[in-house]
Amino acid sequence: MKFENIFRKRRMMKNKLLEKTFSVMEAIAASPQPIGLKELSGQLGLNLSTLSRITADLTEAGYIEKSGYRKFEPALGLIRLGQNAVNDSPLPQLLNPLIRAKTKELGVFGAFGGLQQNQVVYLYRSEGADPTTHLGLPYRTRLYNSNIAIVILAISRGAEGALAVFREALSGVPIEQIRISLTGIEHYIAHVLEHGYLLRQDSDEQWNICFPVEFQGRVYGLSLFGGNASERNFDRLLFESSLLTSRIRSALAAL
């Protein structure tokens, strides 16, 4: 029994260290600019000595790298892991060709993604999007600027749950960085819950159609978007988006 307790404590220590290590990797990967140890400590609640050991190990392994004095950013090793995961995942392998073919046929852009820890993760996104809507590669859109996030949260959490997430995400954000107000988000959530999809036309001639796609208990978002809204036939675009969504749902159901 004594040895079992020792081994159990060792396993718990290893699990806690692994959890801390992943939390550091995720925080560095999610930061739009190099992040320092003090900021990491404030975000994660870890002391500086623990963070120093973890970042030293991750740097040696090639997953992060130093940028300036005691600041860190993702290195090629971490980027490679993400690229390999996307390339080898059955979702993009199955869906990306379908989305790419349809967007080429219609002359529009397309995207497919989900949410992980309230961050938008794209499995596919066309080239040519407005560069102000993303940070780095692949696209990292802020939650409150994402139509896919609106659809996913509306379907998975309902009106009140979705609004609570966006309210927290918008807290403390400068007004000039917000493309959709909380009132606008509330309107779009209601649209999704009433119609089962989001159709958005902005004053700058940009448009976006987004449908939810459920797979293995998780909600994703399929989006077709583009410009020249006044010249578009939205009856056809809605039909084509619905048709593509049905094809994707059928393909996923066969997995």
Produce the secondary structure layout:
Elements: H1 2-30, E1 35-36, H2 37-44, H3 48-61, E2 64-66, E3 71-74, H4 76-88, H5 90-106, E4 109-116, E5 119-125, H6 147-170, H7 182-195, E6 198-201, E7 207-215, E8 218-226, H8 234-253
Helix pairs in contact: 1-3, 5-8, 6-7
Descriptive overview:
With 255 residues, this protein is of the alpha+beta class. The chain has two domains: 78 residues, Orthogonal Bundle (Arc Repressor Mutant, subunit A), CATH 1.10.10; 165 residues, 2-Layer Sandwich (Beta-Lactamase), CATH 3.30.450. It contains eight helices and eight strands, in the order H-E-H-H-E-E-H-H-E-E-H-H-E-E-E-H. The protein is globular and about 60 Å long.
In short:
The protein is α+β, with helices and mostly antiparallel strands and 255 residues long. Helices cover 55% and strands 18% of the residues.
